[in-house]
Amino acid sequence: MRVALYPGTFDPITIGHVDIIRRATALVDKLVIGVAINRDKGPMFSLEERVAMIEAECVALSDETGTEIVAHPFENLLIDCARDVGAQIIVRGLRAVADFEYEYQMVGMNRALDSSVETVFLMAEARHQAIASKLVKEIARLGGDVSKFVTPRVNEALLQRLSE
């Protein structure tokens, strides 16, 4: 069974993330969405909320593609998380050259820690390349419409959170 790990904070999950998830399902039998706890980033949504959003967004996609998709919170090293979930592949989404420079360093470090785990880069569709969770949250906080960048369910969660 080919198992991949797609890690991130997903705060919140965007249509760019969903695009990478969809494309990754063509490569593996099981896709684990590693939801980083990363308390230092001060997420807008709790870990439980982010996991629930991912699960809700991926149900139909899993049914459609036949690939098992599961959300898995983690707070340890990425390579240790990959081992924990039995992943042979780490999937990373790329948006721009700046992403590549950081990711290139990460691959080198992960390979030094465990050379049996491969990293695969997937480019986001051109229309999704500018989407970043950080920017989505900033636009939403300032009253902008983010419905082009997130699913209706996530948009509703953002609006609800900002009204609190």
TrEMBL record:
This is Phosphopantetheine adenylyltransferase. It is found in: Cytoplasm. Its EC number is 2.7.7.3. It is an enzyme of class 2 (transferase). ATP binds at residues 9-10, 17, 93-95, 103, 128-134. Keywords: ATP-binding, Coenzyme A biosynthesis, Cytoplasm, Magnesium, Nucleotide-binding, Nucleotidyltransferase, Transferase. One of its GO terms (biological process) is coenzyme A biosynthetic process. It catalyses: (R)-4'-phosphopantetheine + ATP + H(+) = 3'-dephospho-CoA + diphosphate. It comes from the Bacteria. Substrate binds at residues 9, 41, 78, 92. Reversibly transfers an adenylyl group from ATP to 4'-phosphopantetheine, yielding dephospho-CoA (dPCoA) and pyrophosphate. The keyword Cell inner membrane does not apply. Its main location: cytoplasm. Homohexamer. Belongs to the bacterial CoaD family. GO terms for molecular function: ATP binding; pantetheine-phosphate adenylyltransferase activity. Residues 5-138 form the Cytidyltransferase-like domain. Pathway: Cofactor biosynthesis; coenzyme A biosynthesis; CoA from (R)-pantothenate: step 4/5. It comes from Parasedimentitalea psychrophila. Pfam families: CTP_transf_like. InterPro entries: Cyt_trans-like, PPAT, Rossmann-like_a/b/a_fold. GO terms for cellular component: cytoplasm. Its cofactor is Mg(2+). The record marks 17 as: Transition state stabilizer. The keyword Cytoplasm applies.
